[in-house]
Amino acid sequence: MMMLRKAVAGIVRSAYIHARLAEERLRSGVAWWPLAPGFVANPYPVYRRLRERDPVHYSILTDQVVVTRYADVDRILRDHRNFSNNLHKARSSRGSLATRKKLKPSMLVQDPPDHTRLRGLVNRAFTPPSVANMEDYIRATAHTLLDAVESHDEFDLMTAYAGPLPTLVIARMIGVPESDLNRFKVWSKHLVRALEPLLTPEEEELVYQNEQLLADYHMGIIEQRRRDPRDDLVSRLVEAEEQGDRLTLDEMIVMLRLLLIAGNETTTNLIGNGRFVRSRTMIAPAIGAANRDPERFERPDEVDITRSDAGNISFRRGIHHCLGAPLARLEGRIALEVLLERFARIGFGKRPPRYRQSIVLRGLEHFDIRAIPRGCSAEGPTGA
Question: What class is the 1-85+265-314 domain?
Answer without folding.
Answer: alpha beta
